[in-house]
Design a protein that fits this description.
DNA Excision Repair, Uvrb, Chain A; 5 helices; single chain; alpha+beta; 32% helix; globular; eight-stranded antiparallel β-sheet; 17 strands; five-stranded antiparallel β-sheet; Jelly Rolls; binds nickel (II) ion
Length: 227
């Protein structure tokens, strides 16, 4: 499942994040890539332990924690400390690659299984050319470029790339989520059911049937969740 979450950051948060990124010191992204990915990775990244990165991590995590759709879709157990990258107009890109199954955070020492990958766009689509996030999945290939402040959730297992940036600068935050529900198909069923329940409530209010279905949702979650 590919899911577009709109306005994960408020306008104020986005402004704050952009100002911090503009003033920050960046390093070569290859420093943090695994053996397969390092060949493909041509971008810049904020050092994880820097004051700028820590402030922005807290900002992104706050935004995620208040986002009910993110919670419903990802059912997060652990969230990797958000990282930040920048692709400049010299054709910087990140060629086709797969993310490692277990990501080790240098900042926290924590290991996070990458059930879901997340990209939070921090530059407006009109600010750069190229730089699409290209995700390959069972239905083919999708090229994605979202408004600043919006986020894409996609399966951690997918082959993906960031196409070369030919003008302007692409800024994003990226991180991984280990879900309480490891199976993508089970997670998708729960998300669809939760969305349908929200719609039923909005259209018809509370009823015995929605109460019963809510119970079924939680019984499935209880059966599948690992906390
Ligand atoms: Ni990746």
């Amino acid at each position: 499942m590919l899911l577009h979450l709109k306005q994960v950051l408020t306008a104020d948060e986005l402004r704050e994040a952009r100002a911090t990124l503009a003033a920050a010191d960046w390093v070569d992204g290859a420093a943090t890539a695994g053996a397969q990915a390092v060949q493909a990775k041509h971008n810049e990244q904020l050092p994880q332990g820097s004051a700028a990165a820590q402030g922005l991590q807290a900002l992104v995590l706050r935004a995620l924690h208040r986002n009910a759709l993110f919670f419903s879709a990802a059912l997060p157990k652990k969230i990797f400390n958000p990282l930040f990258n920048r692709y400049g107009a010299s054709g910087q890109h990140y060629g086709r690659h797969v993310d490692g199954a277990v990501m080790h955070s240098r900042a926290t020492g924590e290991r996070v299984r990458s059930d879901l990958s997340c990209t939070l766009f921090l530059a407006e689509p009109g600010e750069y050319e190229g730089g699409e996030l290209v995700v390959e999945h069972s239905f083919g290939q999708q090229r994605i470029k979202l408004p600043a402040g919006d986020m894409l959730l996609y399966p951690g297992s997918s082959v993906h790339e960031v196409s070369p940036v030919t003008a302007g600068t692409r800024l994003a935050s990226f991180f991984w989520v280990e879900s309480m529900v490891r199976s993508e198909s089970q997670r998708s069923l729960l998300y669809q059911m939760d969305m349908s329940l929200m719609q039923l409530r909005a259209e018809h209010g509370e009823s015995d049937a929605t109460l019963q279905l809510t119970g079924t949702y939680h019984n499935l979650l209880r059966m599948w969740a690992d906390t």
